[in-house]
Design brief:
By secondary structure, this protein is mostly helical. It is built from five helices and no strands. It has one domain: Up-down Bundle (Four Helix Bundle (Hemerythrin (Met), subunit A)). About 80% of the residues lie in helices and about 0% in strands.
């Protein structure tokens, strides 16, 4: 594998790990909406690591979602549940960041964080099996 591609994959996964830790810290501080944001971004960065491993990039979040669904979920590399949760986390992040008067509770934020932890683990497994890690 090209060393630059490997370095970018490692960087994106490090971003995912940092976002997971940030989400947990935000939850502990009582910031459920911000925790959802960081949990989603953990998934987003892991998704980008997957795309980079295939020489693919996307300019928008919707493009990343679309490519993950097409290139990893529909092919069976990632389970359907991972794709569904990634899309749902994106929708919740959109609400948390942009919808007036939208409220997230700790239970919901913890669920999104759990999804993110699983998604990052699954992405790592795919990357390991493809030789990218």
């Amino acid at each position: 594998m090209n060393p630059d591609v490997k370095a970018l994959i490692d960087f994106r996964l490090a971003q995912s790990d940092e976002d997971l830790r940030a989400s947990e810290a935000l939850l502990e501080g009582g910031f459920a909406k911000a925790a959802i944001n960081r949990a989603y971004y953990a998934m987003f960065h892991a998704a980008n690591a997957l795309l980079v491993s295939r020489g693919v990039s996307a300019a928008k979040h919707s493009g990343v979602l679309s490519r993950i669904m097409r290139d990893f979920v529909k092919t069976g590399a990632l389970p359907n549940e991972a794709g569904r949760r990634f899309m749902e986390a994106f929708e919740l992040r959109q609400k948390a960041d942009y919808r007036d008067y939208w409220h997230a509770d700790e239970t919901q934020a913890r669920e999104v964080l759990r999804w993110a932890e699983e998604f990052v683990q699954q992405a790592r497994a795919v990357l390991r099996s493809s030789g990218a890690l």
